[in-house]
Amino acid sequence: MRAAIIPVTPLQQNCSLIWCTKTMKGALVDPGGDLDRLKAGVAKAGVTLEKILVTHGHLDHCGQAGMLAKELGLKIEGPHEADRFWISRLDEDGGKYGMHAEVFEPDRWLEDGDTVTVGELTLEVIHCPGHTPGHVVFFHRPSRFAIVGDVLFQGSIGRTDFPMGNHQDLIDAITQKLWPLGNDVTFIPGHGPTSTFGRERQTNAFVSDYALG
């Protein structure tokens, strides 16, 4: 498995291109905008896109997912259906932030414990509410790698002051669902640099073992 980060939108959201090195089939996770940049990145990597994966329904993460799916004939998997509310207002939110966004209907809503495939890779789906109620994380166990969207960042955690956000749910998702996966797991967050769960357990001011002690 390989992964590349392609920042998109004025919010510099980390869209991830992940692919199976055996088949060179891949997926874009959270294609929120800048579709020309994303298509160029896919072409440069020599990857054949198979599907689109979405962690949650916020504008910068999925505002242009439906447009890309239509253009390239791809299916969209994710997020959890609890984020239908956010996806239903993408047109409206796009106007507020000066970004072009379109409402879409995923081909498959995801549940905790589901799996998604990319080429010959299998990723586990972990429902991690709090930032949004339907947020999911994608975990590739063999390579100890996760795409966590806006659940966790290097040194921080996702905002919970948006409609239907819940701070305690977010803390519980991180500590009860992500930490048990192991300190050695490297993750790509929705914004900013990569980190590991072990580093965040040691140093993150919001969810380190010391902070929650």
What report would you give on this structure?
The protein has 213 residues and is of the alpha+beta class. The chain is built from eight helices and 13 strands. The strands form three sheets. Strands 6-7-8-9-12-13 form a six-stranded mixed sheet. It has a five-stranded mixed sheet with strand order 1-2-3-4-5, with helices on one face. Strand 1 and strand 2 form a beta hairpin. The termini are far apart. The model has no long low-confidence stretch (mean pLDDT 97).
Q: How would you concisely characterize the structure shown here?
A:
Its cofactor is Zn(2+). By secondary structure, the chain is an alpha+beta fold.
Keywords:
alpha+beta, 8 helices, 28% strand
SSE inventory with pairings:
Blueprint: E1 2-8, E2 13-19, E3 25-29, H1 35-45, E4 48-53, H2 59-62, H3 65-72, E5 75-77, H4 84-88, H5 90-97, E6 115-118, E7 121-127, E8 136-140, E9 145-149, E10 152-153, E11 156-157, H6 167-178, E12 186-189, E13 195-196, H7 197-203, H8 209-212
Parallel strand pairs: 3-4, 4-5, 9-12
Antiparallel strand pairs: 1-2, 2-3, 6-7, 7-8, 8-9, 10-11, 12-13
Strand content: 25-35%
**Backbone CA Rg:** 16 Å
Major sheet: 6 strands, mixed
The overall strand count is 13
Following the backbone from N to C, one meets helices and strands in this order, namely EEEHEHHEHHEEEEEEHEEHH
Question: What order do the strands of the largest sheet run in, or round the barrel if closed?
Answer: 6-7-8-9-12-13
Pairing-aware structural class of the strands and helices?
alpha+beta
Low-confidence stretches: none
- Roughly how many Å apart are the termini? 36 Å
* Helical residue percent band: 25-40%
Q: What's the total helix number?
A: 8
Instruction: Give the overall form.
Output: globular
Average pLDDT score:
97
InterPro entries: MBL_Glyoxalase_II (IPR051453), Metallo-B-lactamas (IPR001279), RibonucZ/Hydroxyglut_hydro (IPR036866)
Protein name: MBL fold metallo-hydrolase
GO molecular function: hydrolase activity; metal ion binding
Keywords: Hydrolase, Metal-binding, Zinc
